[in-house]
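INPUT
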Amino acid sequence: MIILTDEPLDPAAVTDSVRRDGNGAVVTFLGTTRDNFGGKTVTRLEYEAYDVMAIKKMHEVRDSLRADYGIEDIAIAHRTGRVDVGHISLVVAVASPHRVEAFEACHEAVNRIKTIVPIWKKEWFADGSRWVACEDHEFADEAEHRHAHAERHAVTTGD
Amino acid sequence: MIILTDEPLDPAAVTDSVRRDGNGAVVTFLGTTRDNFGGKTVTRLEYEAYDVMAIKKMHEVRDSLRADYGIEDIAIAHRTGRVDVGHISLVVAVASPHRVEAFEACHEAVNRIKTIVPIWKKEWFADGSRWVACEDHEFADEAEHRHAHAERHAVTTGD
Amino acid sequence: MRFDVRLFALYRERAGASLVTVDLPDGASVGDLTSAVRVDYPQLAPPEVRIVVAVNAEYADDDQLLQPGDEVCLIPPVSGGRG
Amino acid sequence: MRFDVRLFALYRERAGASLVTVDLPDGASVGDLTSAVRVDYPQLAPPEVRIVVAVNAEYADDDQLLQPGDEVCLIPPVSGGRG
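OUTPUT
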């Protein structure tokens, strides 16, 4: 199951889609809108996607995980548009016979989604908004953000 | 939320119990009855608990994770009795502001539960049954299983 | 001191009982208790394997002294594993 | 060759347009395209920052040659991060 939608996500349906009798472990990640960022109150998020490429890249993430972890049962659902505080923007579910691979592959799936899938996030505060480049570099100046990301993109593109 | 029950588990309820507006990441683990073990067909599992101590140790697991990861929102639900193939015996949900800690704490929660909580699992096959000591030592002889476990217990007890 | 010792899972099945009664002198330890149980139920575990004991719902070392009224349980290896 | 280049998110807002038209000579590359876009929209990104391009929904290197009919999009940094 690979879903890109502007409707609310159904995490139970995504999780159930990967459950099989041969799997003993299911790991599900939910990404939700947090009410704060860098000390400021966040009122909502807004996600914009390059839809055709986003779906293609979500499939690529799933295929690469299948190759790297030997896990078949991986589902990804991403929401676009406005996502209010506490609501879900991303669901990733991974099931496998044993838990170690399920945890690793699910975590890595989220990392890869956030690196190569062309979906952008805008944070809305009480007094304005900003496009999120990379939270890891939150306190660096903006040009540095974009530079770091351009390099990551350049590397990613070569895959 | 800490639950020990012989009724079917509700994973969505366990997950929802840890969701808060300050959390951006929720990781949920489901342990389900796998249809095979060591090449043999499993027909069902049966879980037996020392209930008072099991609940106490589930709380200890949660407290130790709070101390080690600084994460407040951790929920554990374990089912006892007969659990058929494909059904859920364990749900662990962890929520935190960021995903790295949520993944690590959830995985570690499952590890600790399976080490110190006195709940035992019996596998039923078409032609018999056996109490599971430690799948990691599946192919060692039985006395070695128990010896390895006795040592783990001795270490755990000292915590 | 007399204790009704609870057995679970593998130990319960091996002993054919979920509760076994053990008489011990005052001042006996957890190790004394498992030694006594082994005499009546040698099939529980080979001598070289330690039998883990919980006293009042807490893991107990072999040298812990028992008190009258303690709730004592024998704890087989938990399921563990990679499930 | 004429391309209608799609802009998303940060780039869309900085340019004030979701589609910008670029005329390029035959045999032009992805790097030629971003250079041309930068002339008309210098506010998109500082010169030292590479603008990532997707051609037909795939990340493209600067030296990839463009073909008439290619779907070209400028890809701002994705959200990434520790969320």
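end of record. The CA atoms of residues 133 and 142 of chain A lie 9 Å apart.
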